[in-house]
Task: structure prediction
Amino acid sequence: MELHQDPSSFSSRQELLEELENLISIESSRNGNPWISVAKLSELFCEKYRVSLEEVAKVQGYNYSLMSLFSSSRRFSIYGTQMPQDFYVALLQAVVPSYDQAQTSSSKYRIKRPLQKISEYKPILVSEIKSIDDFEIALIEIIKSLTANHQTKFATIAILSKNFRGYYGQPIRTVMRSICPEIKLIDLLRSTPNLSVQEVDNDWQITVDFDSVTDEYH
Result:
């Protein structure tokens, strides 16, 4: 395919969105994960077209952020992080297979719009962390609540840290230094039973095996 040097080479928003959809589909098929970071997507776009995705988006009228471009289309799902510019994007049909565009043609898919749930998982937390075992229980419960109540089914370390502080009032690494100063957080997560840790686009994605988590943790 001919490389585009000029940001205005994409004649329409529709053409740009179709190419982004194609890049996400290819990358998802390659790594088996429907979610891709916007940083990785921008990198792939630049490699292919030799032009910045941000510049192309601006030409199409999206001057504020790339998130505004993706949220303008019903074909994408967006997963935000603590940093507004660092978000993940997936094809909506890949993460919500039952989604019917025909029934929602008059409304936009909102950022982080929750699916209707019968009930949400509530973490069962130890009241005070005094040991590594207590710490592992807390991590598992928080990650369970994050993944059970969100369609992405994974948590990043940044999101885990934010929620841990919300529950215990202390930074996660401060607690770690008090009970296991010789262990790094990522190493502890990797060694914790029932947790799976995977590096994707220079970030860590953590999932929990619900089937193997038993009452012994509670």
User: Anything to note?
Assistant: The first strand starts at residue 36 and ends at 37. The CA atoms of residues 93 and 166 lie 33 Å apart. Residues 13-31 form the longest helix (19 residues).
